């Protein structure tokens, strides 16, 4: 099996890129990069090996590591949630593969329903301005009338590893957009505990961190620009308004798996990552307010609507 060109796979909504070159030999293909793409690649490579007899090895060391390895010809392909901005390898091509949402996941066992957060509140949690779950700003987000969107869904069964797996997927119209089932308003009154917030963030060079930073800066532009003023960076600590190295309630971890594991193991913990990391660790995810004032869960339908 020969791949004649270098190909990059771009995932939007934390866009994951996979960059592919000609493998050194047909029996084995080596890659590295984003932990955002890892759950998908782990499933696909098993099916690929079954169908072709070729082996795919993938090391999820972060988007920056993937781009570096690919530039240095250490791997045949790499995955990244962010594009090259310099040092472009020769014959580079980007190929969009899939889209998935970045989720804000948290560990609050006493809270039995998903919480609601505005972008300004998220920024203040991840910059260290808000340090307790009963902060008045979080309380205000969860004691109000909220507008939510529900999309039409259907059950779809596919084979994974030789087994039938049934998943809920959005119903799309002729243009490929998710069909809105209903838009509603409801009053929420969620009691949040007097509990210290522990923020888990990525310490490795991460495209997920960069995309998260772009959201925080863009969603807080204008009158709230002071809440997240720095340019997005793959290194989370480089783009926070405050020097988080001095904050005892911030815990760094390398890769999405360790961020999710940290949140799972710490009551009051909060982190960010591709939504499957929350699902696999049975962590609750927050509904985040969009520019239209609607609170959206990190679902496939919501991602499709965002992409248009």
What is the strand and helix layout of this fold?
Elements: E1 17-20, E2 28-33, H1 38-52, E3 55-59, H2 63-71, E4 77-80, E5 102-106, E6 116-117, H3 119-126, H4 136-141, E7 143-151, E8 153-160, E9 163-170, E10 180-189, E11 198-202, H5 207-219, H6 236-239, E12 250-253, H7 256-264, E13 269-274, H8 275-280, E14 284-285, E15 287-289, E16 294-296, H9 300-307
Parallel strand pairs: 2-3, 2-4, 6-15, 7-16, 11-12, 11-13
Antiparallel strand pairs: 1-4, 5-13, 5-14, 7-10, 8-9, 15-16
Describe what you observe in this structure.
With 308 residues, this protein is of the alpha/beta class. The protein has two domains: 1-99, Periplasmic binding protein-like II (D-Maltodextrin-Binding Protein, domain 2, 3-Layer(aba) Sandwich); 102-307, 3-Layer(aba) Sandwich (D-Maltodextrin-Binding Protein, domain 2). The chain is 25% helix and 27% strand. It is built from nine helices and 16 strands. The protein has helices at residues 38-52, 63-71, 119-126, 136-141, 207-219, 236-239, 256-264, 275-280, 300-307, and strands at residues 17-20, 28-33, 55-59, 77-80, 102-106, 116-117, 143-151, 153-160, 163-170, 180-189, 198-202, 250-253, 269-274, 284-285, 287-289, 294-296. The strands form four sheets. Strands 12-11-13-5-14 form a five-stranded mixed beta sheet, sandwiched between helices. A five-stranded mixed beta sheet has the order 6-15-16-7-10. A four-stranded mixed beta sheet has the order 1-4-2-3. Helix 3 crosses helix 5. The longest helix is centred in the N-terminal third of the chain and has 15 residues, at 38-52. The protein starts with 16 loop residues before the first strand and ends with a helix.
